[in-house]
């Protein structure tokens, strides 16, 4: 089942300045709320700089000396040609993503820290949305990282870390219906061990997981399809990399 948005998660609150509705974390409200209100009214917040990866629409914005990623919701595939960043419905995608991500974070899943989400209602049931998350300095998507790294000594620990993080995500009770190389972040790790930190993003369609085994095989298939689409010749993500990921996942215990 999808994560429902029935109430604000613990530590978050609703703020409405018609026609924009914001769900914001209370302890960062003072500096996050203004940028989310601006993002709700425009296709992208003013200031900052564009960030690469995914479908675009992500900007790094500084507020009160804090760096925040504000990502406008963008459609993919054929709908993007006509609707771009316009959505329909009464259970907005940014609020679903915030609720799911925060629920998983509280369960100990390796997900990005979310600050708030905004929905700007253009017409009844028609909206544009955005999400604000913590900026991770030095982070790259797995696809960006894989294109830059050719050393086996570098690749093995990263793909092992992805396998372990994916197991933690499943253990937290969720599966990722849109897992691909662009919504896995590789972040600088502990300065002593140099082990990379892995975070997952894009949880607007996160679902409760039926079984660990089925979830893993499905997610691995998605990663493999993503690699074939982005890298048909296997120059950046090889079969051996996915084998390393699989082995690390299974080392955390037998699948249910």
Q: Would you give an account of this structure?
A:
- The chain is of the alpha+beta class and 256 residues long.
- It is built from 7 helices and 13 strands.
- It has helices spanning 29-41, 79-82, 93-106, 142-148, 152-171, 212-230, 239-251, and strands at 12-17, 20-25, 49-50, 58-63, 66-72, 87-88, 114-123, 126-134, 140-141, 174-175, 184-187, 197-200, 207-208.
- The radius of gyration is 18 Å and the shape is globular.
- 40% of the residues are buried.
Rg result: 18 Å
Largest sheet: 8 strands, antiparallel
Helical content stands at: 25-40%
Overall geometry comes to globular
Q: What is the mean pLDDT? A: 83
Low-confidence stretches: none
Beta-strand content: 15-25%
Structural class by helix and strand composition: alpha+beta
DSSP summary, beta strand count = 13
Can you count the helices? 7
Terminal residue distance: 19 Å
Oligomer: single chain
Number of domains: 2
N-to-C SSE string, H for helix and E for strand = EEHEEEHEHEEEHHEEEEHH
